[in-house]
Amino acid sequence: MNLKTLFTVNAIVNFLFSIPMLIVPQFICEIYSSGDVLLNEGTYSIIRHYGGLIFGLGIAFSLLRNVPYSNAIKSLMIGAIVANVLLAITHAISILKGIDNAQAWGIVAIGVVLPIWMILVIQKNETTKA
Q1: Distance CA 34, CA 18 (A)
Q2: Which of 61, 104, 115, 125 could form a disulfide with 100 if both were Cys (CB 3.0 to 4.6 A apart)?
Q3: Which residue, among 92, 75, 85, 74, has the nearest Cα to 114 in the 3D structure?
Q4: Which regions of the chain are under pLDDT 50?
């Protein structure tokens, strides 16, 4: 449960989701959409924007793997915790409204597990720092 492993896993997850979003957003929409929603060029554009954002986060986590714990790292992790929790909540709402299909529960799970892991790493580092 160390920082390097956490950041490596975060980078991999970000790359696994972002690359298809950037290259084949239609495919991503077809996988997660319930089929009852309108998919158009605007939808695909938004998916590409989000893919670009999480690709950048993947780069950041990848570059920070060997950086020692600090207040700056803690701040990044708190931001990632908030982002992942909001991701989990918004996907759960979309699933319950019939916008996303049941496969999106995997995204919800990631949005819950990663923040818990980050909180545990922060707690571990804060107690050893004190």
Answers
A1: 20
A2: 104
A3: 85
A4: none
